[in-house]
Write a structure and sequence with these properties.
Helix 1 links the parallel strand 1 and strand 2. Helix 1 runs parallel beside helix 3 and helix 7 packs antiparallel against helix 8. The protein has 14 helices and 29 strands. It is 31% helix and 25% strand.
């Protein structure tokens, strides 16, 4: 792990993170693993022990593994086997099957008890030098000056000012940082109130499919797993129904009873009402202050992408902050964070709203029409699969020559399969090769990459990886090790061939920067990345 003593006296810390939920905690670990000093200011004196999110997808599992908690994820999660929408009569409107071996190296859907996940991240944070977590510290002021940001936080009996080079607000839906920045917010005005019931079952029960959306106009209901031994039921508040009545514990037990959940079979861990929202901040960076997670966006729960989107935020942000702090890219690189992630979050919010408009129907006639239309359209269709991870469409991507649009491979999330070094055991690509920028090629890397290009890749801590036929070795050279691996699962050869490429340049967040054919094409690919990082504008953008 790198350290950066050059900056030790310039500010109290390199990055201040406001909020120590899963998003802020993950960012602190990602930055500390890159050698930066991070101070996390959390207003709560103790960890929040109630779950909010209940699951994350396979892409997010891969991103979480980048924090170092991959080996522990299996202890705090359970894979889901499927997701259905059902009518009140039990007819299947939507059927998606999940597999334990998804395209990104992890199960398609992972259910969890959120506090257990946060404990994993917290343990990783404690094991790293450079992270200071200050609990009971509420941020009340931010002053962005020349080369430093001063953050004022208060405790029960004191106030303190910390200086940092960057500040990231991960302080949730009611973000002080967002309010302080006074940025505008796009609000779609789509919100409903639901009763949330977290339950611990006294005896194991099998639920197939794991997650169900009951599209019953008499009471739209969500039934999902929330980690080992736990389930969550959510019940929509009906028009004219009293929120106070819905929030009573007696109401929770009455609504749970038809599902075989009673005080004799389960413990009600929590029942509370909440109102979901659909909105995003229009600016995610103002000067040296940034937003991430719920501070930047909020969405209905129907696509299960709230926490996933926050993790994508900080994985995108961490490597860009690292390059900016190291002086390998200008500060304008951070503008691509907003460009890339705001577009993706907006798409996720719009998709969640679209799903919600189908689910939150309480008019019986409208529901009957919906059911008849959907059932007619899906007749004869097999169980579906989850959609692949969403590509980037703008930002730091290689462009087609003389064009605004990205080249075909650019922006996609590269899949993950098992690989093996010659003579070594196989494992997931990220674990065998390591994380960061990756130049993946079937060519002899030394043919197209001269010493200058290899030195540039080494400055980025990039891995140069050659796909080998079984038994062939790869050597190092030019100041940068070339890692030779065999494609155990046959994932990467076909993926390259699908783009007519022999080389892929992959970013630390697993999005493809660009693809190329032949050794000279690989050299041009590296040159385009270097040019893009120097100017922090999309490579190949017409001048």
């Amino acid at each position: 792990m790198r350290t950066h003593d050059t900056y030790s006296n310039a500010t109290d810390t390199d990055v201040v993170i406001v909020g120590n939920g899963p998003i802020g905690a993950a960012l602190s670990v990602l930055l500390a693993r890159r050698g930066w000093r991070v101070t996390v200011l959390e207003r709560r004196p103790r960890p929040y022990r109630l779950p909010r999110a209940t699951s994350f997808d396979g892409e997010t599992a891969r991103l979480l593994a980048a924090t170092g908690i991959g080996p522990g994820l299996g202890r705090v999660t359970e894979p889901a086997n499927g997701y259905q929408w059902q009518t009140a009569a039990g007819a299947v409107l939507l059927d998606i099957g999940f597999t334990d071996a998804g395209p990104y190296g992890w199960p398609d859907a992972n259910t969890m008890h959120q506090p257990a996940l946060e404990d994993l991240i917290a343990a990783e944070a404690r094991a790293l030098d450079g992270i200071t977590v200050l609990r009971g510290h509420e941020v009340v002021g931010i002053a962005d000056g020349e080369g430093r940001v001063e953050v004022t936080a208060t405790t029960d009996d004191d106030a303190r000012v910390l200086s940092a080079r960057w500040v990231v607000g991960c302080d949730g839906a009611n973000s002080f940082v967002r309010e302080h920045l006074d940025v505008s917010v796009t609000d779609l005005g789509f919100s409903y109130e639901w009763l949330l019931c977290d339950v611990e079952l006294r005896e194991p029960r099998e639920f197939t499919p794991t997650n169900v959306q009951v599209c019953d106009p008499a009471r739209p209901t969500t039934v999902v797993a929330s980690g080992p031994g736990r389930r969550r039921w959510e019940f929509m508040r009906l028009p004219g129904e009293s929120a106070a009545e819905l929030g009573r514990e007696e109401t929770a037990w009455r609504l749970l009873a038809p599902f075989g959940v009673t005080p004799a079979t389960a413990t009600l861990l929590r029942s509370t009402t909440y109102i979901f929202q659909a909105r995003w901040a229009d600016q995610w960076r103002v000067g040296h202050v940034l937003l991430a997670g719920d501070a930047a966006h909020l969405m209905p729960p129907f696509a299960g992408q709230g926490m996933c989107s926050g993790i994508r935020d900080v994985v995108n942000l961490a490597w860009k902050l690292d390059l900016t702090l190291r002086g390998l890219a200008p500060e304008s690189l951070l503008d691509t964070y907003t460009e890339e992630r705001r577009a993706q979050a907006r798409e996720a919010i719009l998709a969640s709203v679209q799903l919600g408009r189908v689910i939150c129907v309480t008019d019986p006639a409208a529901a009957a029409e919906r059911d008849a239309t959907v059932l007619a359209n899906r007749r004869g269709r097999p169980t579906g699969r989850p959609e692949p991870a969403k590509p980037l469409t703008g930002g730091l991507l290689r462009r087609l020559p003389g064009a605004q649009e990205a080249e075909p491979a650019a922006g996609a999330v590269v899949p993950q399969g098992r690989v093996a070094r010659p003579g070594g055991p196989d494992g997931l690509f990220d674990e065998v090769v390591g994380r960061g920028f990756v130049l993946l090629t079937t060519d002899d890397a030394h043919t197209g990459l001269d010493g200058e290009r290899l030195v540039f890749l080494a400055e980025l801590d990039a891995r140069v990886v050659r796909l080998l036929p079984p038994g062939q070795e790869a050597d190092g050279g030019g100041g940068s090790e070339v890692i030779g691996v065999t494609d155990v699962d046959g994932v990467y050869g076909p993926y390259l061939a699908g783009f007519g490429a022999t080389s892929l340049l992959v970013r630390p967040d697993y999005h493809v920067f660009g693809a190329a054919a032949g050794p000279q094409g690989a050299a041009a690919l590296v040159d385009d990345l270097r040019a893009a990082l120097r100017t922090a504008v999309p490579a190949g953008t017409p001048s």
